Amino acid sequence: xxxxxxxxxxxxxxxxxxxxxxxxxxxxxxxxxxxxxxxxxxxxxxxxxxxxxxxxxxxxxxxxxxxxxxxxxxxxxxxxxxxxxxxxxxxxxxxxxxxxxxxxxxxxxxxxxxxxxxxxxxxxxxxxxxxxxxxxxxxxxxxxxxxxxxxxxxxxxxxxxxxxxxxxxxxxxxxxxxxxxxxxxxxxxxxxxxxxxxxxx
Length: 201
Fold this sequence. Notes:
Layout: H1 4-31, E1 37-39, H2 42-45, H3 48-57, H4 64-79, E2 86-91, H5 95-105, E3 110-115, E4 133-141, E5 147-156, E6 161-172, E7 179-187, E8 192-200
Parallel strand pairs: 1-3
Antiparallel strand pairs: 2-4, 3-4, 5-6, 6-7, 7-8
Helix pairs in contact: 3-4
């Protein structure tokens, strides 16, 4: 149906379009930087809707299941009197910078910051008095894994053996859990090496 030159042409154009798409997303994310450390109250952070609001302000879109799991974990940390992932003890002037560094050190997607001593007080990192000493609870959250690794095996039902084995590595490219990946595999039936590109959302 298609000759080899036509197939090669479509392959090259497909790869070029994917590269342009990835490059465009990288440029957009470089210029469009959301504040990934958001202050709120402990009371709000323990609700599903509160977590979704904070995540949205950070540029992340969570589904109801993710938001519920995060808010439940935050509530359990408080009720069992366990310490949060990170406690920031600093001044108002350094609070934003110290919280962002803590998020980065923990390789989190975004962080929720609350007042350690007043659960109903809404924390606004930009409006803290410069010389004021602050003690903040910080919950560093990884909404989506940065890298996905997938191994798949295709059985050969007739011969009761293995037809294909594939491995792929996917990198997160957006804040709502979209990934682009590259994979390789081997077809035991046709004795050939396979290569593929993937897009996951």
